Amino acid sequence: MVKLFPRYVPLKQVIITEKRDRSFHYLLDFDIVRGNILRLEISGRHRLLILTDTNDRDYWRCQLPDQMQSCTKLCRDFMGYVYLQSKDSLYQLRVDTRVCELLPGIQQYRYHQVMDQCAGRTSDGILVRNYGEYNKSATLWIVTRSGRKKIYEQQDKLALQYCQDLDGKGAINAGLGFPVISRDMTASLNRQHTQRGATSAFVRQVMSKPIGVESFCINDSIFVFDNIANLMFIFNQSGEQLESNHIDFNNRDFMNKYIIDDQTKLTYGVFRNKKGIYLQLIDRKTGKSLGSAKWIDMHFFEKVRICQNMAIYLKYDHPDNHRSLTRTYLENGL
Length: 334
Prior knowledge:
The protein has about 325 residues and is mostly beta strands. Among the domains are: about 100 residues, Thrombin, subunit H (Beta Barrel), CATH 2.40.10; about 90 residues. The protein is about 10% helix and about 45% strand. Strands 1-2-3-4 form a four-stranded antiparallel β-sheet, with no helix packed on it. Strands 5-6-7-8 form a four-stranded antiparallel β-sheet. A hairpin with a 6-residue loop joins strand 17 and strand 18. About 10% of the residues have low confidence.
């Protein structure tokens, strides 16, 4: 029989006192409001909203109330309204150079149920975008008081092939490269994919990202950019097609998104390839790229906005765990 006895080892006494670094500053997020920069920052133990011009001169600073200390992001809806976002709520802001008004919060899931589908607004209706199951398709509708009309639909053939292959209906191996488990496992799934344990539903969600159909409304015209078919369409506010053209992006690897300068209404494409992130001015009438592309950063940017011939983007530095705003000046559009 072996008996074990406790042994007590004394530890040095440590007294913990409350001491905060009130000089600590950290940038959480930013957005552009009427040509000015709205920042959300942590300063000491408080969270601040700060409005500055593009030269970083302050208009005002305000401290968020205690119940909003969990807010971490600034976001905009399809009508351009700005919101503060916390884990479960959104608070609408009304901002100008003199004052910031805070409207009552709404539950985040209710906001997303309605607003995530809205892609733009015309004088007569709202442009709505719906994704099919596992994002295998995208459909655009124009919704007015008299009803709704489907104006465009695109299916992601690659996502369809992945999902068919997972169900054993595909003709080729999906070659997913990470673990898969399906109830109806067939020879189309390589054994090395099945040994590590992810579900086929998880694989569908990971591999079937939202397909490359972007849209926006300007002056009652609806612009649809299909980056899979390399086509650009223009519809009027009633959903009638006016033009269609092929898109030419000067051999960029793929399109991330489109952004619009709120003041000049110029449209830019955000591209990514092995060298980093590029901005490309886009002709809305033809869908063609204009001028040369502008390299803005390597891969670690979180948000980009265009303001007064300037690209302003939020950059995250992994080694320093620090966010900063970086500016790139654009000459003659680009």
